[in-house]
Amino acid sequence: MNKRRRIISVLMENEPGALSRVVGLFSQRGYNIESLNVAPTEDDSLSRLTLTSVGDDLAIEQITKNLNKLIDVVKLVDLSEGSHIERELMMIKVRATGSMREEVKRSVDIFRGQIIDVTQSTYTIQLLGNSEKLSAFIDAVGETIVLEVVRTGVSGISRGEKILKL
Amino acid sequence: MEMLSGGDMLIRSLADEGVDIMFGYPGGAALHIYDAIYRQDKVKHILVRHEQAATHAADAYARVTGKVGTVLVTSGPGATNAITGIATAFMDSIPMVVISGQVPSDKIGQDAFQETDMIGVSRPIVKHSFMVQNPADIPEIVKKAYYIAASGRPGPVVIDVPKDYTAPNETYEYNYPESVSMRSYNPVQKGHSGQIKKAVNAILAAKQPVIYIGGGAIHGDTPELVTKLIKTLGYPITSTLMGLGAYPSTDDQFIGMLGMHGTYEANTAMHKSDLIFCVGARFDDRVTNALDKFCPNAKIVHIDIDPASISKTIAADIPIVGPADSVLQQMLPLIEKGKDKVDQPALESWWKSINEWRQKHGLYTKNRFDDQSEMLKPQEVVQAVYKATKGEAIVATDVGQHQMFAAQYYLFDKPRKWVTSGGLGTMGFGIPAAMGAQMAFMDETVVCITGEGSVQMCIQELSTLKQYGLPIKIININNQALGMVKQWQDMNYDGRYSEILYEDSLPDFVKLAEAYGHVGMKVTKREELMGKLEECFAMKDRVVFMDIYVDPDEHVYPMQIPLESVGDMQLSKTERTA
Predict the structure, then answer these.
(1) H/E element holding B21?
(2) Least CB–CB distance from B131: residue in A16, A24, A166
């Protein structure tokens, strides 16, 4: 069966231990997590967790069923089943000296990023987009000048009227 | 409004929840709670000799009564000792609440004396867990814990309570909630009616059907409904280790246990079936054998309360999520009153085949084991116990060959009489489990069928049995080796017996029993077996330890051949299926 990357969005109780139950489930059952982010929502009692995982339909079905079994999980949706928007934020520090300073600046403009910190020898760049775009930027500037990469992991939301809410 | 301390609230909540018995062991972090126990008389506490035994006893109490078992342990080693029993209950979906003391809240995370992150350690083997954050929440947490443990797919729930939250100097308004609702937890109450109709059509259209039940069929009214279903349809029924007793084993339509040590007729019927109707079982590896060779012609109808158990290993053609009893309740009228009827000629010829298999290699055919051999055979010991107890005992087991022989030869006609660690396969389960079952039913005969390996893993509980006057009968099927490991070493490792022998170090079990104040008896000969067993079961108020020496070379058969289909079995040391 075809392995695909899925974005699973989870609303869970904002309780201590809830996150470790979700993360533990993945290691316990041998599922993989590519990225994971979690933060409170407009409702204080709920956190929203977004994770990406690669698997075939059966594996993803088991993941969603087992997530749903966790008492702390209130609701979840596989965003990749419908039309959706995904975004990830990256902060990347690169070596920028001599002619590379112009070169990097040009790439940042092409990718619609911003340079958010400058020293005589480095740039720190902020870039927003889907995961592919962020990876493409790293390829474009070339790994040799990359000093540090911080990515938030994917967040996602459905398009149109569809919402994940209580 | 009554004002109570955290410790008093905890025990009062248990009493208000209807808990009559708990099993436990005190320690530093649980001292305030134990003081609360001392000052009341509603909840009886049984002092075990090791926390593992407390969990197994509470687990067995739950298995035989259908109620939730309750355990109380202290922090650190008390909590970690309970882990094996929690995992045992988790694997077999047994409702249990385990309360563990914790170091005071301001010491958590400081590697305090007897500190263990119990919530973390137990996380993968609990249905849910609670860390008390505020003593005022204790009644609500207890209510939720019992609700979660017992509802849906049952399982163990841990409540971790920091010591300072149980201290007597601070009191809170006590109010035990009558009910509890949780927005994130709403177990399914009914099956999907469209799926049920589809299932009924498939079941009635089958020519070679098998009904396959598991531990889920023990719950609620499921046993009566399964029996009604089987009698209405006239179909054959098989059961997993966990489901034994949900349908009467002595009934002709019962074709025996299936799986690794299932009967020839049950495994063969499964393999050749065109429809498998699974009620509350989970197609685990001890049943299915190789997944890619599993029942090639069968359509699968699967009822389970847990959606994650459906299509986990074997894809269901018609899945139904819901409690087995309510789904069967919905299903029965459709079968009884619907237009479609069972295909009687097909069913007759199916039964003809099954009966032929039964006569050819069934458990009761001649030469299944040699009952004229010089040494006693383990199978005949189980049969003699069955006879001596008229098939009416509650039977707890340990894990290994004796467990499989008990499953094969002790025929359970009623649910909740069979107490065995199926999923986790926990050696040491037997004595404490028998203890918990006897505690629940003081007037019933409770037997622990065990082996000289397993029995030594929780043998300290002989002392607890004495203290509380729990007259269980221990049938130690002594083959002087770790028999199941030995069998595998015989079959797969050319008889290289790695670390399974005791080299004359076995204790004199008769003297050991006597040292604990019990009766010990040794049996080595066929002629004395029945007489001694009758003597044993006549001693109604004594614990009797029967040390019965059997043939060390006996194997459990049938045995599925690894990596093959359900129907591929070794039938004896020399025969296998074609």
Answers:
(1) strand B21-24
(2) A16
Q: Is the CB of residue B452 less than 8 Å from the CB of residue B479?
A: yes
pLDDT(B438) > 80: yes
B427 belongs to the catalytic site: no
Identify which of B123, B184, B311 has the shortest CB distance to residue A71: B184
How far is the C-alpha of B464 from the C-alpha of B419, rounded, in Å? 19
Query: Which architecture characterizes domain A4-82 according to CATH?
Result: 2-Layer Sandwich (3.30)
Q: Is the ipTM of this complex over 0.90?
A: yes
What average pLDDT score do residues B515-539 get?
Answer: 98
Domain A4-82 and domain A85-155 have a common topology: yes
For domain B2-174, give the fold.
Rossmann fold (3.40.50)
Predicted confidence at residue A16, as pLDDT, reads: 86
Chain A environment of B150 (Cβ under 8 Å) = none
pTM of the model: 0.96
Domain extents in chain A: 4-82, 85-155
Q: Can you say whether residue B536 is alpha, beta or left, with left for phi > 0 and alpha for psi between -120 and 50 degrees?
A: alpha
pLDDT at A1 over 80: no
Nearest chain B CA: its distance from A54 CA (Å): 18
Reported as a single tens digit per residue, the pLDDT across B273-288 is 999 999 999 999 999 9
Q: What is the CATH number of domain A85-155?
A: 3.30.70.1150
Annotated catalytic residue within B3, B113, B170, B392: B113
In one-letter notation, the amino acid at residue B406 is: A
Tokens, residue A162: 């569809």
Secondary structure (DSSP) of B401-436: HHHHHHHHHS---STT-EE---SS--TT-HHHHHHH
The b/e string for B351-386 (b: 16+ C-beta within 10 A; e otherwise) is: beebeebbeebbbeeeebbeeeeebbbbbbbbbbbb
Please name the residue ranges forming H helices in B285-341. 285-288, 324-337
Task: Give the number of other Cβ atoms within 10 Å of residue A24's Cβ.
Answer: 15
Told to judge if B438 belongs to the known catalytic residues of this protein, a careful annotator would answer no
Give the pLDDT score at A3: 87
Instruction: Indicate if the pLDDT at residue B364 is higher than 80.
Output: yes
CATH number of B193-361: 3.40.50.1220
Q: Which of B123, B182, B315 sits opposite A20 (nearest CB)?
A: B123
Q: What is the pLDDT of residue B101?
A: 98
CB contact under 8 A, B307 and A28: no
Report the distance separating Cα B316 and Cα B301, nearest Å: 6
- Kindly state the tokens that stand for B394: 């509650």
